[in-house]
Amino acid sequence: MMDVDTNDEPKSGNDAGAIGENVELENLQAQPTAKKRNRRKERSRKKKPDLETDQSAAIATQMEAVRLDSASPQNGVPELRKGSEGSAARNLDGGENSSSKLVSSAKKKAKRRKNVALSSIEKLSIINGTPSVSVSNGNSNLGRGLLTSSMTNVELPELKASNSMQGGPLSNGPTNHKSAKHRNSPDPGQLRDQLDTRRGSKNQLPRNRQRTSDQQRPHGAAKNKQDHGGSRNKTFQRKHDHILDENKFEPHLQRELVQVMLKEQQTVVKGFIRINQRNYREAYISNPDGTKDILIDGVKDRNRAFEGDEVVVLILPQSTWKQHEGALQKVGKVIHIWTPVHHRQAVGNLKRLQDGNSRQVLFSPRDSRIPRMRIPIKECPYKPNEWENCLFQARITEWEDVRFAVGRLVGDSVGAEGDIEAETRALLLDNEINWMPYEEKLFKYFPSTPFTPAESDLVGREDLRKRCIFTIDPLTARDLDDAVSCEKLKNGNFKVGVHISDVSFFLKEGTALDKEVAKRATTTYLVQRAYHMLPRQLTMMCSLLPGEDKLAFSVFWEITPKAEVVSHYFTRSVINSCAQLAYEHAQIMIDEPDHNWTEGELPQIFGGWTVEDLKEVVLSLQSLAAIMRQERFDSGALRVDQPKVVFRLNESGEPISYATYANKESHRLIEEFMLLANMTVATDLQNKFPRLAFLRCHEEPQPDLLKKLIELVEKFGIVLDGSSAGSLHKSIQGYSTDNRTRFLALNSLCSRPMVRARYFCAANIHDVKYMRHYALNVPLYTHFTSPIRRYADVMVHRLLSSLLGYCNEPNWTVDYVNTIAATCNKMKFCAKKAGEQSSELFFAIWVRNHGPVEEEVIVIDVKDHSFDALVSSTGTNIRVYTNKLAASVEFDNSVIPQLCIKWAVSENGSKLTHQVITMFSVVRVSLRCSNTNLLKVEASLIPPGF
């Protein structure tokens, strides 16, 4: 089923030390004479009088309109960090002593940079009364003057921008300056002087290091101003700087300016960026109007945003928009990173730089969406041959050059490529999964084991220890969150109970343990093991193991035999599960009610209950669940199934076989009552806590993608009705019996327009229609039933405890709930990706050990030189390239995308007819491991007849 439901690094000590050293260095700066300084400013005015005056006036108008206050006693001087050219890093406090040292430099380079900075603003205009900043593509040197860069922070009053990675390793996160009263526009000449003062000492040498003789000059340097060789060098250097600037990012605008632009300008939008995994030069954000995504074309316009970051994008003029599938697609560029979601770290390999640089090495991330990094060689293993076939983790510390970032290694080697444990660590690191055991100092925040509830713990709880309550879970599960019960009432109705582990009783809010659990947010399930959200001891303490007294939250419904809910209530309880059934056990009870159970077929049953008692409960719940499920889909629910692969491992942990995991009635039985519990809790919480309710929504599919899909599959005789979730579900199910492989492909295609479900704070949504859950087709939904493995459920339990009067209302703010929701959303997705990558890892290892292997695949997308397909036996997505086939290949997109392949000869030597590959074509491929990456599966098309 699709995923609809069911932090920044601190500065290193070295960085801090460098800043401190350079503050001291400023005290040694030489001061040019006033006469020289005046001559330099006069020459600058003569060169570009109109440009500077006009631009300064425009800046003054811009500042007056925005009314931003960027002036303070601290930002009268720049904050400089060490740059790529080796200039001294400075971080001055703006006091009297330091400001007196910041005087104009006599060096030509500083003067040239000032002029470039002034000429870099192409346009400052007011659109609909709102300021907009358009930076020239030719020069991104604004970071060296009027706007800030990741290396400098030069601020002018009323106008600020930042070129740092917002909240990234070099930043303390977005600032929140308070607006000051409106001030008079500054005099243009004062702006020039101010800029001159701020930039003048950029490249000054300390007095004791200034050149005093010809021997100290660089080779070819001019001795005096009349030497024309100096002018030629200056001209060459200026051209060289222009080339370098093409590879520099534009500065990010500051949040205050962006906030105004978002309110007033329709050409500025906010959203989460998605980077094409197969083409890192393409990125997208969703268009707020629901139409085609906004394209961010190129790494430079992506402007240091990473996958998943919340960004602000400026939509570029229509002349830059791209033709895509017969329509114009809007193009934009990132002007601000609102919330940095990605951790700016990656796993990859180390290589020697080809430019002969002996002080740095190249780090190549496995994820192409992350830039390559230059790493100081002093951080690498001493012997380069120790780098070969080894994985390392690196963190980005700077990213000014579009082509390369600057980074540092994190820890030691991750391990050898191709090793299962090393590859597992790599995918955990890439997905920000903390798999390290909890520190023992945190164990003091929960009772020691073994734990038996005391009488004081049972006050206010309903005693259900004598009821027939049991769990139904996967065979090897240990984190047993939920148990079920069912009793027939005298009036013929049923009293159905769902009993959820009371984790919030043990996990006290605000403790150090609670904060760490909130960061992990979810349990991560891999092929060979699970990494639990809670400490192992606490997991077992909360798990509803059979034969033990356990604290729980229980919800009871009175339900008629026709599955109509009459009433419900919640209570804290104490239970004693009588059995730990697996889905397989419950399925036998459903399929074979008269099955003769032999000793050892079932796990131990406690409390004097029998197999017949358990079977009666299972069959009663199954009869109700079947009706509830049918009514749910008749009422408009949607389900898009995705296959799940399970592996059988040998003693060394390597895969020896695999199969797809089939969901049967026993799974659906539990699913229906968990859904009912979650919906019931959501409604009660929203009624009681309309602002702080912790809920989960699922928005409608992206309309343009859904429309495109419907139009495309119609050409293959498949009719989909996308007017609602229910109509789409019925359309998909109409093809469930035609062809299993085609049905698999159709489900995969229908999952593409879907958006991810997400947690949210009720206060953030003012229109109830946006609280809805599209796939479930219900107005309110949340997660309550899995607190051992989801922190979101713990939040819900705390609210429910308050609702029932067990504790006071949580002292939460909306911002706090938003933060927890954002973390839960991120980590849920990261855990999902880690699980999928783990399956891909073990499938690749299986292919490596058994390949090459032939598999049947079904095509789901056709491109000019390749096609994407699903492996029928696993549902694995692969790409098959056709540009290196021993055949003639033509791509035709006139009616439907198709590849026309003319094979030379068949296996027996006879000529073959044309092979045409379109969507839903079933072909055979050969799977093998890549020669360069042992865990990358490559597929090659097998000619028909072979």
Automatic annotation (TrEMBL):
One of its GO terms (molecular function) is RNA binding. Coiled coil: none annotated. GO terms for cellular component: P-body. One of its GO terms (biological process) is miRNA catabolic process. Residues 461-806 form the RNB domain. Keywords: Exonuclease, Hydrolase, Nuclease, RNA-binding. Residues 1-116, 161-235 are annotated as: Disordered. It comes from the Eukaryota. InterPro entries: Dis3_CSD2, Dis3l2-like_C, NA-bd_OB-fold, RNase_II/R, RNase_II/R_CS, RNR_Ribonuclease, Rrp44_CSD1. The keyword Ligase does not apply. Transmembrane segments: none annotated. Residues 34-48, 106-115 have a biased composition (Basic residues). Belongs to the RNR ribonuclease family. PANTHER family: DIS3-LIKE EXONUCLEASE 2, RIBONUCLEASE. This is DIS3-like exonuclease 2. The gene is LOC117642481.
